[in-house]
Amino acid sequence: MAGVPPITMRIGFWNVRGFNRPLNNGVAHLIKNNRLCLLGILETKLTTSAIARIINRTFPEWCQANNFDAIAGGRILIIWNPAIIDLYPKDISPQVIHCRVTNKSSQLSFYISFTYDLYSVVNRRSMWEKLLELGRPLNMPWIVLGDFNCIKSPAEKQLGVTPTWYELKDFANCCLALGLQDAQTTGCYYTWYSNSDSNPVWCKLDRVLLNNDWLEAGLHCTAHFNRRDASPTTLRVSFLF
């Protein structure tokens, strides 16, 4: 409707590589400063009981879900503000947490999948299979976001060994089969750096993908990427009516 301001949601994800006590405050500041209502925290390296204590102490009014029982190492934790959104985890697996989200203000619903892929081509295949299983029956807007630990085209890697089609094809074919496209982005293109002066490598490992239903509904999503060792990725999701 002309003249009606968009309803916006702010979402983030952060590969923290160890959720220690100083980082608790960092996450709290991130949520407050960016007015986030939903945050995916990757690679916490904590147990279910430890996370429960942290959430109860630092985010007492927020809810959480994790996949710690599905894979060791505290891989994916999501926290959300139930005053702003209703979130229902629909499928929890070692590399994906798949949820249905409803914005309480607009009552618009969509699906969101937070991913943290494993390191080898073979081990990631179960993740591509899971996304195909989740995405094929959907007829609603869907966002897939997180650390994919791989690229889907040679242009997404700078320096280092040139990737082979064997390394790229699973990701590329999954996106093609599901109609997933990269969201509009700002900030860093290459989100990961090898931190090696003698053998520098830059890669785009973190991303936000949208399905055709999202695009056809006329919804908007812009993701701002920082290099993962600096600060997290934040999304501004707008619902226009």
Automatic annotation (TrEMBL):
One of its GO terms (molecular function) is catalytic activity. Residues 14-218 form the Endonuclease/exonuclease/phosphatase domain. PANTHER family: BNAC02G09200D PROTEIN (PTHR33710), ENDONUCLEASE_EXONUCLEASE_PHOSPHATASE DOMAIN-CONTAINING PROTEIN (PTHR33710:SF71). This is Endonuclease/exonuclease/phosphatase domain-containing protein. It comes from Sesamum angolense.
